[in-house]
Specification:
heterodimer; A: 147 residues; alpha+beta; Alpha-Beta Plaits; 3-stranded antiparallel beta sheet; two-stranded antiparallel ribbon; 4 helices; 5 strands; 15% strand; rod-shaped; B: 360 residues; Cytochrome-c3 Hydrogenase, chain B; globular; binds iron/sulfur cluster
Chain lengths: 147, 360
């Protein structure tokens, strides 16, 4: 009954160390490891869905400046933004955010917005005519109601 | 009557992983009374329910606690599923059961380690935590997180475990089980361990009932009650006994928890052999209807209750968790009465306190 642990203690003397000899031997991440969120900014449409879905409010999307910002220390790696991105442009990187003395905020800047395609002159004339007709009709209506 | 002194215990104390404060009224070395004070790590997670979409709130609930995080998520999700009145796919139920039981193993191993630490058996502590690491590795492989899993979603689960992965896990667990038998043998039969646990912290069956003990604390006092028997998730399809002990002391609590570890191995094996193929999630559309629901979950520490009330908007009107540690606090105060000062750390540990849960 006494000293049940002795067996363990003796075994331990000859066992390989349980811990890894870091940094000589690096940890291998699993396929599903949730490390840090990265963005493929070219595909982002700045819809802001990720910002709304983030439970810790770590993401800020600026549609006008075309930037996507993440507060690395605020992110809790829940993958909710990734699951809700309509363009599937977010994904999880396996590497953790490196420790830091200051709160890391990463900003990704997207390419400038593609210029809006110029409108067909004929279509434009048609649109203008339609608008003028509408205005005239409204005026007539107003006159009628005044009478 | 000897001299009475009041010794403050905690919130910072080597034996406490989390902050709780007790004022111990001592007469010489005997504790006459213990006056608890909680509230050091209140984070207001419950009130966040009013500010986060009910879907995103899962990720908040999970962070109630770092040890039973999976079951917190599961309890909340199942309570909202009851409001929606959706039936989740069978595969999701089984996956939830497997993850929940893995959480139980890891939680109890953590507790065994802390217990060993509390009575000063450092080497045993390291052995327990070494084993626990294997479970954490399995969690990382299957969910991507070691502590917080983020796999629950209203209507099902987000990630699948392929068949090979399940078999590999069962293999790992079988390997672990052998080693664990030898390790738990130390807890159950070693002279030094017994001298610290036997007869310490008696909580009789009547006291357990009147004070409302839950979980292994209650079962160690001989009460046969386990919320898993209600058959939530896939527990209804699996066969298992309720593990109890009649000794009512710290040793009995240790015994019950060790029994539950091996039972969890068995439940996982059963679940893996029975798990059906199929969908992972039943899509749930729109906001929850007006209504309320209760969900009771057997956590490693005991029964937790989740209450959700919806007013039809995307924010829940109220979300409440009754955690097992909170229920176990008054039994703890009972066991502390007339205890030796040197046994106090050990007694606090035998309820397996999780203060983060308690204060949310
Ligand atoms: S959800 Fe996706 S597309 Fe929308 S702003 Fe975020 S990253 Fe861009
Ligand atoms: S992973 Fe979660 S916490 Fe992190 S940015 Fe995405 S939604 Fe926010």
């Amino acid at each position: 009954m006494i000293m049940k642990f002795t067996k363990f203690a003796l075994k331990n003397l000859f066992r390989k160390p349980v811990t890894r000899d870091y940094p000589n031997v690096k940890n291998e991440f699993c396929e599903r490891t949730r490390g840090s969120v990265t963005i493929n900014i070219e595909d982002c449409i700045y819809c802001g869905s990720c910002q709304r879905k983030c439970p810790s409010g770590a993401i800020t999307v600026d549609r006008n400046a075309r930037t996507w910002t993440i507060d690395r220390m605020g992110c809790v790696q829940c993958e909710n933004c990734i699951n809700n991105c309509p363009k599937k442009c977010l994904h999880m990187d396996k590497h953790y955010t490196t420790p830091d003395f200051t709160k890391t905020v990463d900003t990704f800047e997207g390419p400038p917005a593609p210029p809006k395609p110029a409108m067909d002159p004929e279509k434009l004339a048609a649109l203008k005519a339609a608008a003028a007709a509408k205005k005239a009709a409204a005026q007539k209506e107003a006159q009628k109601s005044e009478e | 009557m000897g001299n009475r002194t009041i010794v403050p215990f905690g919130p910072q104390h080597p034996v406490l992983p989390e902050p709780i404060h007790l004022d111990l009224v001592l007469e010489d070395e005997k504790v006459i009374e213990a006056i608890p004070k909680i509230g050091y790590i209140h984070r207001g997670l419950e009130s966040l329910a009013k500010k986060r979409d009910f879907n995103d709130y899962v990720y908040v609930v999970e962070r109630t606690c770092g040890i039973c995080s999976f079951m917190h998520g599961m309890g909340y999700v199942e309570s909202v599923e009851r409001i929606f009145d959706v039936e989740i796919p069978d595969r999701a139920k089984y996956l939830r059961t497997i993850w929940a039981e893995m959480s139980r193993i890891h939680s109890h191993l953590l507790w065994l380690g802390l217990l060993a630490d509390a009575f000063g058996f450092e080497a045993l502590f390291y052995q327990c935590w070494r084993m626990r690491e294997q479970i954490l590795d399995m969690f990382e492989e299957s969910t991507g997180g070691r502590v917080i899993f983020s796999v629950n979603k209203i209507g099902g689960v987000l990630k699948d475990m392929p068949h090979e992965m399940l078999l590999k896990f069962v293999n790992n667990l079988n390997g672990m089980e052998k080693e664990l038998r030898a390790l738990t043998d130390v807890f159950l039969n070693d002279y030094t361990v017994q001298s610290r646990l036997r007869g310490v912290g008696i909580l009789t069956k009547e006291q357990a009932v009147t004070l409302g003990a839950v979980g292994p604390m209650m079962r160690a006092s001989g009460i046969e009650l386990d919320t898993r028997k209600l058959g939530y998730a896939a527990y209804g399809d699996l066969s298992f006994d309720i593990i109890t002990s009649k000794d009512c002391d710290s040793y009995a609590r240790c015994e019950v928890r060790i029994g539950e570890i091996f039972q969890a191995f068995d439940i996982i094996r059963q679940a893996v052999s029975k798990i059906p193929e199929g969908e992972l999630i039943t899509p749930v559309k729109g906001n929850p209807p007006v209504g309320e629901a209760f969900m009771r979950v057997e956590q490693p520490r005991g029964e937790a209750i989740y209450y959700s009330r919806s007013d039809g908007s995307k924010f829940l009107e109220r979300m409440r968790i009754r955690t097992p540690t909170f229920a176990n606090l008054s039994p703890l105060l009972e066991t502390l009465k007339n205890a030796e000062l040197a046994d106090v750390p050990l007694l606090i540990l035998t309820i397996d306190p999780c203060i983060s849960c308690t204060e949310r």
